[in-house]
Amino acid sequence: MVNEFKQFIMKGNIVDLAVAVIIGGAFGKIVTSLVNDILMPVIGFLLGRINFANLKIVITEATDSVPEAAIRYGAFIQSIVDFLIISLSIFFMLKVLMKLRKKKEEEPPASESPPEPSNEEILLTEIRDILKFR
């Protein structure tokens, strides 16, 4: 069972997936910082000095023992912008990868010899040669 688990873990796809998840998590943090620290303040300034992080609808005010209950739609808007930037980045990355893959598939292998003729082609060639000599 331990050997099977080692084989499963060491497969290329599993290792690639693990690397992708780690890089994706780091990329998500970068995009979140980009949105929260750079884009949203600029957008808020352009829209009349609005701080999106503070946009909320208060349902009940805070008391001494109960915290405030509020719908934080500003944070939701920031999450939507996060999602759009990440999905747009992934879209462009996949588009570039597909273009590279398509280019690689179109290139004919330089060192590959022509394919062997089929049995029908061999027979037709023999028949042609026999007819030539008659």
Keywords:
two-stranded antiparallel ribbon; mainly alpha; 5% strand; 134 residues; 4 helices; 2 strands
**Secondary-structure element series:** HHEEHH
What is the spatial order of strands in the main beta sheet? 1-2
Low-confidence stretches: none
SS strand fraction: 5-15%
State the helical fraction.
55-70%
Distance between the termini: 71 Å
Label the structural class: mainly alpha
Rg over alpha carbons: 31 Å
| Largest sheet geometry | 2 strands, antiparallel
Tell me the total number of β-strands. 2
Provide a count of the helices. 4
Mean pLDDT comes to 84
Note the overall shape.
elongated
Topology, please?
Layout: H1 2-10, H2 12-46, E1 57-60, E2 69-71, H3 73-106, H4 119-133
Antiparallel strand pairs: 1-2
Write structural notes for this entry:
The chain has 134 residues and is mainly alpha-helical. It has four helices and two strands; from the N terminus they run ααββαα. The protein has helices at residues 2-10, 12-46, 73-106, 119-133, and strands at 57-60, 69-71. It has a two-stranded antiparallel ribbon. Helix 2 (12-46) crosses helix 3. The termini are far apart.
